[in-house]
Amino acid sequence: MSEHQVTLLGRVDCHACEVAKADLERICGEIGIELTVVDVDTDTELRAEYGDMVPVILINGEEHGYWKVEEERFRAALRSWG
CB under 8 Å, gap of 24 or more: what pairs does 58-64 form? Predict the structure, then answer.
């Protein structure tokens, strides 16, 4: 599988963000992909674009989904990028 960039856009004190982070850490850890976590509240452009949608999952810089990790869909998306 080729190298992917997986990014979670979230915020501090967001329960859904913590759940998504745990899910992504587990899945990415299983397949050897590094997860980057970005707090949207530290960047005015990110907060304006994604603030109402967090958590948001990006694969290779493109929006994959938001609010929760759909594991089967996420794994399929990684395979399709490969």
Answer: 58/5, 58/6, 58/7, 58/8, 58/9, 59/4, 59/5, 59/6, 60/4, 60/5, 61/5, 61/7
